[in-house]
Specification:
Strand order of the largest sheet: 2-3-4-7-6-5
Strand content: over 45%
CATH class of the largest domain: Mainly Beta
Number of domains: 2
Order of helices and strands: EHEEEEEEEEEEEEEH
Number of strands: 14
CATH topology of the largest domain: Thrombin, subunit H
Shape: elongated
C-alpha cells in the first residue's frame, strides 16, 4: 500500500494498485445521465484489466454495459476519485460487475481535524424524545465542518454536553445533491451575543458515520477547501 505519510499535500495521482484498496471497501458510483448514485463493494481487481464490484442492491437499477461512472472511495485520509465504465454484468454464481480498470486515480488529502468555514442550514433532532422541549427537529446554522465534527449555532440549546443528536444537511458535491444524516455528540456548549440575538454555539463530534455518508462528507469538505482557496467556483444555490 502507498505510504500515505510520504505523499505531498494536496492533490496527486496514483495507480489503483499503488493505493491497494482492500476487498470489502465501499465505492460510490455516480452516473450523470440518468442521474443516479450507487454504492457497491470492492470484490477484487486485476491490474490493468478490471475491477470486480458487487452489483448495487438498489431496486430498479437498469444500466447497460458501457455506462460511465465517477467512482469515489476513501483510503486513509485521502479521497480517491477515478473515471470508469461498466464492462460486463455477471449474474452467476452471484450478481457482480466488472468495471474498467482506471488509468489513474486522483487523490485528495482530507485532514480529519481541519474545519472549513461555511454557512449551511441544517435540521437537528434529539437521539431520544424528551431531550428537547418537544420531540421534533429544530433549525440551526452550521458555521464550520470537518470529517470529525462541526460547529452549530441556534437560538436555543439543542442538547447538553455529552448528549447525542442527529444533524440533517443537504449538500452539493460535484454538482449532485446529497442528504447527509450525521449522528453526533455535543462536546461543548457556549452562549454568545450575535447582534441583538443570543446565540447558542454547539461543538459536536460526529459518531458512527456510515461509509457512504463519510464518502459524501469527505467530498463536500474537500470542495469547500477548494472554494476557500479560490481554486473552485462556488455553485449557485
Amino acid at each position: 500500500m502507498t505510504d500515505m505519510v510520504a505523499l505531498p499535500k494536496g492533490r496527486r495521482s496514483a495507480g489503483l494498485a499503488d493505493i491497494a484498496p482492500v476487498c470489502g471497501e465501499k465505492i460510490r458510483l455516480e452516473v450523470r445521465s440518468p442521474h443516479q448514485r450507487l454504492l457497491v463493494q470492492l470484490l477484487g481487481y486485476k491490474e490493468y484489466q478490471s475491477l470486480m464490484v458487487s452489483a448495487p442492491r438498489t431496486q430498479g437499477v437498469l444500466l447497460h454495459e458501457g455506462t460511465r461512472f465517477t467512482a469515489r472511495l476513501m483510503s486513509g485520509n485521502y479521497l480517491c476519485t477515478f473515471e470508469t465504465r461498466l464492462v460486463q454484468v455477471q449474474a452467476r454464481p452471484f450478481a457482480y460487475w466488472h468495471l474498467e480498470y482506471p488509468d489513474q486515480v486522483e487523490m485528495h488529502r482530507i485532514r480529519a481535524h481541519t474545519r472549513v468555514p461555511i454557512v449551511l442550514s441544517v435540521r437537528v433532532e434529539p437521539e431520544e424524545p424528551g431531550m428537547l422541549l418537544a420531540a421534533e427537529s429544530h433549525a440551526a446554522i452550521c458555521r464550520d465542518i470537518s470529517l470529525q465534527g462541526a460547529q452549530l449555532e441556534s437560538t436555543r440549546p439543542l442538547a447538553q454536553p455529552g448528549e447525542s443528536l442527529f444533524v440533517t444537511a443537504r449538500v452539493g458535491v460535484a454538482g449532485m445533491d446529497h442528504l447527509l444524516l450525521l449522528p453526533a455528540v455535543v462536546r461543548n456548549l457556549q452562549q454568545s451575543e450575535n447582534g441583538l440575538i443570543n446565540a447558542f454555539v454547539h461543538g459536536v463530534e460526529f459518531t458512527d458515520l456510515e461509509e457512504e455518508t463519510r464518502l459524501v462528507l469527505a467530498g463536500f469538505v474537500y470542495e469547500q477547501q477548494l472554494i476557500g482557496l479560490g481554486e473552485l467556483e462556488e455553485s449557485a444555490s
